């Protein structure tokens, strides 16, 4: 059970999180972002037998638990009247559904640690299916300090960046004006070949994308 | 409760489904596709107060229930040995998680019928967020019989087709070679302006995309 040995997601349950969103709006926005991302990641992990991506799912699942707890506290503190409380109940229903989605995604990747490989799974991958990979940017990469647009990642490789993990903060669905930094971990989706090109760039093996 | 009056998703619970996938593989593939699509649709419905998209979520949720039932039956019939059964248990875990995801998406859109509009919700929409719309192709549209690539939908409008509903069958994440037919309902994501251009084409108001 390779990814069970990496205890980062487990540590995260007890650690303080560096970036604390302040408002209910911020909390709910991140919960929405996580639930849209985590389902794709979970299926990708199980279909491609990718423990790296499964680890991110676990991490995001724990983060979602925390957010759901925090939003409940914030909602209760913010409710002064019956009207407030009724509106907050709606927000908490969305939050709970988001948490349920992330737990279900966690259930999917749990199968990886059972080492149950079913002959049906690889057949679920469409020929056209793009792969999802996690790439950490090397110190030597010339991409550091450049924006996603400047690097022409989409047009040169066909790869889309789903999220960037920077220390303990996540940037979901980064836009072209986001500047990459050393040590960033990019969760990317795209064709096999494009992912390989981007990996070369982020590892410092090539200077620009061709 | 406008969308509650439209009983199509409710009817679907009792109706026979025209397209019946045959194998466990087909069943699971569709469950994967639905769970990847339904989360985006649910959030879009609640954020943009869109009962049209909420209706599709309801429809897909009912479809998912059916698929989860069918896959259980198929898995039991296919299990002759303990090894078979153990592998099938893994498949059913993925299926159950997919069903849970679609139910959670259903819980999100249920809020629309409660008419609870929270001032926080519109703030969750990023300026860059694309809208999701359902467009049904008119008989008069010149797009009928043409492929998605031929119509240059992506390059001319920036719109991506997430799914096509054709009678009771769904095509999830259609590729460029899929030919559009009269009466197709397209679930699309993209910039406001691009969606409007595509709507004109599909309603027969313009002959080609400019």
Description of the structure:
2 copies of one chain form a homodimer. The first copy, chain A, contains 8 helices and 4 strands; from the N terminus they run H-H-H-H-H-E-H-H-E-E-E-H. With 210 residues, chain A is α+β, with helices and mostly antiparallel strands. The first copy, chain A, has 2 domains: 2-114, Phosphate transport system protein phou homolog 2, domain 2 (Methane Monooxygenase Hydroxylase, Chain G, domain 1, Up-down Bundle), CATH 1.20.58.220; 130-202, Alpha-Beta Plaits (2-Layer Sandwich), CATH 3.30.70. The longest helix of chain A has 33 residues, at 82-114. The A-B interface holds A 24-25, 28-29, 32, 35-36, 39-40, 42-43, 46, 86-91, 93-94, 96-98, 100-101, 103-105, 107-108, 110-111, 114, 116, 118-120, 123-124, 128, 175 and B 24-25, 28-29, 32, 35-36, 39-40, 42-43, 46, 86-91, 93-94, 96-98, 100-101, 103-105, 107-108, 110-111, 114, 116, 118-120, 123-124, 128, 175.
Structural class of chain A: alpha+beta
Please indicate the percent range of residues of chain A in DSSP E strands (runs of 2 or more).
Answer: 5-15%
Shape of chain A: globular
The CATH homologous superfamily of the largest domain in chain A is called Phosphate transport system protein phou homolog 2, domain 2
- The domain tally of chain A reads 2
Unreliable stretches of chain A: 1-6, 13-19
Tally of strands of chain A: 4
Give me the CATH fold name of the largest domain in chain A: Methane Monooxygenase Hydroxylase, Chain G, domain 1
Number of helices of chain A: 8
